[in-house]
Design a protein that fits this description.
The complex is a heterodimer of chains A (254) and B (169).
Chain A: E1 4-12, E2 27-34, E3 39-43, H1 45-54, E4 69-76, E5 82-88, H2 96-106, H3 110-114, E6 117-122, E7 125-130, E8 143-145, H4 148-157, H5 172-175, H6 177-199, H7 207-214, H8 218-222, E9 226-233
Parallel strand pairs in A: 5-6
Antiparallel strand pairs in A: 1-2, 2-3, 4-5, 4-9, 6-7, 7-8
Helix pairs in contact in A: 4-6
Chain B: H1 9-23, H2 33-37, E1 56-58, E2 70-72, E3 77-79, H3 93-96, H4 99-115, H5 126-138, H6 145-168
Classes of the chains: A alpha+beta (254), B mainly alpha (169).
Chain lengths: 254, 169
Amino acid sequence: MQVMPTGIVFYGVCKVQTPKCVAQDGAPITAVLVPPGRTQVNICKPCLDELIRQGSWVVEGARVRGMRQQIDIAACSPNGEIQLVAEVKNKLNSSANWAKKVYNRAINNSVVSNAPYFMLALPDQFYLWKRNENFAQTIEPHFALNPQKFIKPYLAAKSLKINDVGVVVEDEFRNEPYSVIEKHYRFQTIVKEWLSDIITLNSELPDELRYFLVSSGLYEKIRNGFVEVEAIIDEENALKWRPQPEPRLALAVP
Amino acid sequence: MRNQTGLTEEQIQQCQLNWIFLTSGEVGIGETLNERDGNDGNEHFSREKLVDVTIQLDTSQAHISGSKTKFNEDMNGVVLGADAFPGSNAIDPNSRLSLLACLAHELSHAERYFLGFRRPWKGVDSHLDEAETSLHASFKPVLSFYDRIDLVEDARSRIDLWSKEIGEE
């Protein structure tokens, strides 16, 4: 989950209290905003580092030692092997060149480059790359889909419009980082729900989806499998999904 | 330009609070990196160098107007100065840096020193050291998004300064 530190430091009790906690009874802590709803979580620095190290939280651009990787969405076969790694971005009206750049950055990640499929999910475009012998060199997406028709019911169920999950203005992240993180969380949830429904669907797939999912061979691999958001992956066992314990967030509220 | 007015007692306490927060759980406070992460021996820098390093904040000069915040390698500490607080120039990224970002920058000087970096601390190349240090600090998870941006922009402005001055030499 992407979170946003406020950079504000004050004296208080840490609400997370991992075994590394130094503020169980009060110490300097900070406030971190967590989606949904920009919930404020007061946390000490060692606990913040720990959640990032575990991969439970992601702070854009931040690194800590021994940090584990988190991927936005993993779709697994019924036996738990990761078949698809999906990266969720909120950019609307993106260009194919931009998508290729995102893909090029992503395949430097060993988990992504080991997965049979990689999807870049944007509110107005899904791109799919299929692994082959030239996976690392291939930058053109193998399949593309305009998902708006398919995600519309999911948006409507949450009373959302596409602009509530998409970023239009180039500098929106710089100007409104909190709202962008919220949008990322919303859209990630929608893509997860859509994928989960698709892979357990009993009826025929619509034609466009058949081209995207069946022709690519992906559907066969993930059918009746499961989908995880914010999957934490061990690089040593990169293609096997292992459930992670939930962070003990807010359990220590006085 | 950053703040030049000597800090009040309240401001100094605020600095201390931020410093304790920033260094809590840091290497050297009763814990070794090997114990914490499991050192696989495949690091760019020797982690052992950071073990048992406690970086103190010396507040004795902070009330003096014009005093500077700086890492002092002889005392394993950071000397707090009036310029720990931001200035009023919103255009200059260095002036804009928050208290937390400023302290994170100084802590990064210390971390880099104990990791073995020995960059020039005067002359034109010291700008590069400052730029590297700001980039180092920008990876700290405790910083806000804006602090991170300001640190990166501070690094950029220092590289610009280096480019300008190296051309003059």
